[in-house]
Amino acid sequence: MMGDRDFRTTIKSAVDSIGKELEIDINSKDFQTIHLQEVVQCLRRSYYDRIEPEEIERRGFNELLSGLLRKLQYGSEPKNFEVDDIKLKGQIDMLVDDSILLFRAAPDELEDPLATDVLYLNACMWIYDKEDGVIVYITGDRKETTFSLTRNKKMFEEVIRRVRVLNDLLKEQKTPILEPSMECSDCQYYEKCFMKKKNSKQLSLAEMMGLGKKDEI
Ligand code: SF4
Predict the structure, then answer these.
(1) What is the pLDDT of residues 33-63, one digit of tens each?
(2) Which ligand 1 atom is nearest residue 187's CA?
(3) Per residue in 172-182, pLDDT tens?
(4) Separation of CA 39 and ligand 1 centre (Å)
(5) For residues 98-109, b (16+ Cβ closer than 10 Å) or e, as one string?
(6) What is the CATH code for 9-23+31-180+187-194?
(7) Cα(179) to centroid of ligand 1, in Å?
(8) SS (H, E, C) 92-150
(9) Domain ranges for the chain
């Protein structure tokens, strides 16, 4: 008989393997192609994902919903938007009657859509040249919350600005600044951003007070 512990490990590895299959395929060396997902989330996270990636911990099948719909291609081929010599690549979950639909998992029913999802949907409306879009949040117990949006140019310009910033930083191999947000609590780079390394060298009192070593003064 399979113990509870083994059972959990099996589920976790199934979720991890399906998650890997459904991940957006990003060529980490191709800095001239930036994926929309990379610029609506924290730029530092996207930078680390390309330059020194760490595995993400997936929590359940519900999280895989959007990737599954994208893979099944319900009327949505990935599409590029040219930003000078950079390609911004987006992909929607579904296209119905000229409206873009995104599906996202949510722990509870939401009062407002998440900022990253609004940025993503708005950018898709420009990339696919559509006027309307909908985000559907689905909870683990299958409750739905739906938000409709009309496109906004200023918001898209902000996404374009972030595309240029990420492209520059990748080319210059410079780590983007911290973007502290709710996203940090689930981020695999949390320790890298916010904790000191355990084996870091001990600082002298003078160094901690910003006085430096005696012979450097
Ligand atoms: S911990 Fe926060 S600031 Fe650091 S990479 Fe992750 S999301 Fe960005």
Answers:
(1) 999 999 999 999 999 999 999 988 766 655 6
(2) 6
(3) 999 999 999 98
(4) 13
(5) ebbbbbbbbeee
(6) 3.90.320.10
(7) 6
(8) CCEEECCEEEEEEEECCCCCCCCHHHHHHHHHHHHHCCCCEEEEEEEECCCCEEEEEEE
(9) 9-23+31-180+187-194
Q: Which atom of ligand 1 is nearest to the CA of 188?
A: 6
d(CA 56, CA 187): 7
- From residue 217, alpha-carbon distances to 206, 207, 209, 210, 214 in Å are 12, 12, 14, 11, 6
CB atoms within 10 A of CB 54: 12
Which of 45, 54, 169 should be mutated for ligand 1, with most atoms under 8 A from CB?
45
Q: How far is the CA of 122 from the centre of ligand 1 (A)?
A: 23
Atom 2 (ligand 1): residue with closest C-alpha? 184
Ligand 1 surroundings by CB, under 6 angstroms: 42, 44-45, 178-180, 183-184, 187, 189-190, 193
Distance, CA 194 to ligand 1 centroid (Å)?
8
Report the alpha-carbon distance of residue 211 to residue 217 in Å, rounded.
8
The pTM assigned to this predicted structure is 0.79
What DSSP state is assigned to residue 23? Answer: S
